[in-house]
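#struct-pred

JT: dropping the chains for the assembly here, can someone run the whole complex?
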Amino acid sequence: MIRIAILGSTGSIGTSALAVVDAHPDRLRVVALGAGNNAALLAEQVRKYCPEVVALASGDGVDTLRGLCDPPRTVASGAEGLLAVATCPSVDVVLCASSGTAALEAVLAAIACGKTIALANKEVLVMAGGLVMDAARAHGVAILPVDSEHNAIHQCLHQRSGADVRRLILTASGGPFRGRSRASLAGVTAADALKHPTWQMGQKITIDSATLMNKGLEVIEAHWLFGMPASRIDVVVHPQSIVHSMVELRDGSVIAQMGITDMRLPIQYAFSYPERWDAPVPFLDLTRMGTLEFHEPAWDDFPCLRLAYRALEAENSLPIVLNAANEVAVDAFLRGELGFTAIPDLIAATMNAHTGGVADTLDAVRRIDGWARDRARAGVRELQSIP
Amino acid sequence: MIRIAILGSTGSIGTSALAVVDAHPDRLRVVALGAGNNAALLAEQVRKYCPEVVALASGDGVDTLRGLCDPPRTVASGAEGLLAVATCPSVDVVLCASSGTAALEAVLAAIACGKTIALANKEVLVMAGGLVMDAARAHGVAILPVDSEHNAIHQCLHQRSGADVRRLILTASGGPFRGRSRASLAGVTAADALKHPTWQMGQKITIDSATLMNKGLEVIEAHWLFGMPASRIDVVVHPQSIVHSMVELRDGSVIAQMGITDMRLPIQYAFSYPERWDAPVPFLDLTRMGTLEFHEPAWDDFPCLRLAYRALEAENSLPIVLNAANEVAVDAFLRGELGFTAIPDLIAATMNAHTGGVADTLDAVRRIDGWARDRARAGVRELQSIP
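RK: done, full complex below.
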C-alpha cells in the first residue's frame, strides 16, 4: 500500500489524483490533504478518504471545515498546514499540486523527510531548482515529474545514460492563439485566453499556455529535472497534444511518448513508479486522431518563451524574477488590469531591473521573489496610469 | 574493437552496414564477408576491408573473385561458405542480411558459436523462430533486430518488463499501392510495385511491401523476437515512415521510436548495442516532415497481411508454408508469370493444401519448406495454363 499526501487536493491535479486513488483502492491510500480555500470540497474529501492530516490556507477555512465534517486528528492552516501535510510521518509519496510558490518550503521539508516527490508544481523548480535537486540527491529522494511533458521525457529516458541524449524536445500545443500575430493579440480578453484547445487545466496555467510562458517554465524545469543545458532543450509546437514530448538520442533516434490528454496518466505513473498499472482512461487510437503536426514556435509573436530561455541561460537568479513577474502579470491580466501583449513586456521590464545575485538559500529565493513581485506590481500600476 | 561478419555484404543492407563500419573505423572491423553472385563488388570489399574469410554462392563466383583481387586466407562457396563466414572464430557480431531462407543454417551455427546476431533476414524467424530463439536462449546469445520496425520496438521496450506491455504496434508505409482497391491492382506490373514511396530496398522486400506481406512477416518475426501472441501485435498504416514502430504499455502510454528512413541507423544500433554512438546520418527535423498520418490497414484489398496472422495463429508449421509460397509467388510476379493479385491467392491455396505438422528440427523445416515451394510452383504453372 502506497500512502499519499496531496498538496492542492481541491484543484484540477488534486482531484485527478484522487480519481487515480479511486481506481486503485488496493494500492493507494490517502493519508494527508492540503487545500487552499475550498473548505467545502475538502470536507467532502475528508468524509470519503478519512486522511490523518488536513490543511487549509487560513484559520477561517479550518473553522468552516470543522462545521462541515468530522475533522481528522490533525488540522492546520497556513504555511504550517502545508508542512504538516508534506511531512506526515506515514506518507510515502507527496504530490505537490498546489500552484504558485507557496509549496516550495513544503517540498523541501518533504525531501528532508525522505518522501518521494510527485511534482506538478512548476514554480518549485523554476525558483529553486538547484536547492531542490541538491536536497533530493542528498536525501536519496526521487523527484517524479507529473507535468505531462516532463513525465513523457522521464518515460522516454527510462534510465538511459545522459551521454546518449542529444536533445530534449518539449511539445507545446501552441495554446488558443496559435497562428496569430502579436499585433492581433493586443485586445484579447481573459475569457479568450482561457479556451485551451486540448487540455483542461487551472486558470494560471491556461494563461501561461496562451502566452507560451508555460513552455518557457517547462524548459527551466526540464533543465533541473534532467540535468540538461538550455542549448539542449528544444520546443516544438504540436497542436494535437498527442506526442507529450520526445528525447533525441545521439544516433538520431527520437523516442516519443504519446497518450490521450488526461492528467490521471502521469499522476498514476508517478504514484506507481517504477511499476506500471492498468489505467482508468481509454487507450489511444492513433487511427482516429487525424494527423499529427509539428511546427517551429512563433518566437516573435509569443516573446515569453524567449524570455524563459534568457532567464535560464543567465545562470543566476533571473528565473525567480521571470516567474514572480509572470505570476503578477497573469494575475493582473485575469483581473483585466493588464493587456495580453503587456504580459511579456512587464516580465522583460522586471528582468531588466534585476541586478543579479545567486539564490543559494531559501531566504535568498524568497527575497528575490518578493522584490520581483513588488517591482512587477509597480510596473502594472505604471502601465495603468498611462491613458 | 567489435569484429563483424556480414552475410549478404553486397546487398542493400550489407553495403549500408559497410558504410556504418566506415563511419566507425576505431570501433568496428570487418572480419568475414559472404555474398551471393556479385563477385565484382565483393572483390572491391575485399580490397578495402581485408577480411579473413569470404564466401560466394558458387564455385564460379569464387573463381571470378580470385581473378579480381588478392583473396583472403579462407575463400569458400555455397552453404559451406556461409557457415565459414558465420562461425569465423574472431567474429563478435554476425549481421545476417542475406535474403531468403539460405541463411537459416548459418544463423543457427553462429548462435551455437556464441556470436551476437544482428538480424535483417525475416525468413530466419518466420521459418524457424522457435528453433532460433530456443538456441539463442540456450547459448545466452542476443538477437538484435535490424529491420527498422523491430529495431524501433527493441528501442521502445528498452528492458521494460513484458508484463507492462499491452501491445506492439508495427507501422507500415502501406507501399506504393496504398489506397487502391484489390480490383484496381490486377494489372499492375513489377515496375509499378518496385516504386516504394519511402524506403530504398531490395526487390523481394519491395514487392512484399507492396502486398503488405512484408508487414505480415514482421508480425510473425515480432512474435518470436518479443514473445508476444498475434493478438497483441497490431499494424497501423503510417505513410510517412517517420514513426518506425510503437509499444503500447498497460497504462495507455505509447512509446514510439522515430527517425529518418536510413538503414544505417538500425544497423549501427545493433552493432553498438548496448552503447549508442553518433550516427553518420542527418538528424530528424519533425517541423519539416509535414504531417504524420495513421490509418487502419486495408485488410480486404491486401489479403497477405491477414494470411500472415492466420499462419501465426495456427501455431504449427504454417508460417513456413506462407513464407515459401510467398517467395515463389514474388519470384513469379517479378518474372511476369503471375499477376499481383494472384500472389495472395497462390499463397492461400498453398496454405490450404498444407496438412500441418510441427517443425521442431531444421530438417523438418527444410522438408515443409521444400514441399511448399514445389506446391506453389505447381500452382504457378496451373495458373499459367489458364488462358
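JT: nice. Chain B has 15 helices and eleven strands. Chain B has a mean pLDDT of 94.
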